[in-house]
């Protein structure tokens, strides 16, 4: 038993070493994973190098180690998609054992980039949520038109607002209002909010329940941000639009720990003020 624990520890440490630059693509990551599994199971199961890798994985590779490998296959930048050629979907198409491990690794399904090209995005979201267990949820949604398919997708995300961790993308005004209303109801896990909408839309973003928000970006000077007294101390990156410079002061007062502050003044070029260690006067 002691030997097995040491072996698993070596495997985890080895998997934390990222492959070189050319192997950072999703396809190369999966191939790199297969190489790691091949090498690991050879030592763990003590079977000849010529044995079938899938049989050896089922026989000797611990669930926790394979699950850890799977997590490393997720994209470094951006969110997973429903493509069967990318992780996590491709991992379940190798064999029944890999599929079982992938489905039981809830964190693999906790983030999703929703594509408009998908015929039924609402069903994809529903399946993803079902596989995510109780993990915090992250979504990238960009819908520039209104139809039943888009509305169904947004409506599938809305009931889980208390589990939102990262919300990013573009929505039409009605959909944007629904998301903002859900945030006002209470999103205790929300750390990243970057949802744009029609530039002529006037609305209010209430953040009093987003106590751990670290990243906020608005794209319209007609959006009024409230509740900064509750979440301002946690904000590190803030990008907002304003009608004039006088609207900058409330952000600076309520957000003392900002590292990056970007403000776009109407009819003026963007001003970027990067700070380190809080506000400097």
Automatic annotation (TrEMBL):
This is F-box domain-containing protein.
